[in-house]
Write a structure and sequence with these properties.
Order of helices and strands: HEHEEEEEEE
Distance between the termini: 32 Å
Number of strands: 8
Number of helices: 2
Structural class: alpha+beta
Strand order of the largest sheet: 1-4-5-6
Length: 102
């Protein structure tokens, strides 16, 4: 029984170094997490490192980026969803961080 109790703790420690499957920078989103965003998240979309990602989902394979300089009537930037392979990593872990990918 002790081995099964240790397994989730070990997997939780290993998962602490990879970003979540879905994350948003908008504080009104249910996928917003300030602590994880403060660490710095790197995003690679279709093989290109992107710095303008508003939200991403690794398992569903999409990112949301701002569509030009347009805003909606509530003052939020208009975004478009782009589909493709997404990879994410924490930038504070150095040169070879663990990468979360689908």
């Amino acid at each position: 029984m002790t081995d099964t109790e240790n397994t989730p703790a070990e997997s939780g420690a290993a998962l602490g170094d990879t970003p979540p499957d879905r994350l948003a920078i908008n504080p009104k989103s249910p996928f917003f997490d300030a602590d994880k965003l403060q660490r710095g998240i790197g995003i690679r979309f279709k093989g290109v490192v992107r710095t303008n990602v508003e939200e991403y989902s690794i398992s569903e394979g999409w990112v949301r980026v701002q569509a030009g300089k347009s805003f909606d009537r509530k003052g939020q930037p208009l975004t478009i969803k782009l589909n493709g392979p997404v990879e994410a990593w924490y930038e504070d872990l150095g040169d070879n961080p663990p990468i979360a990918a689908a």
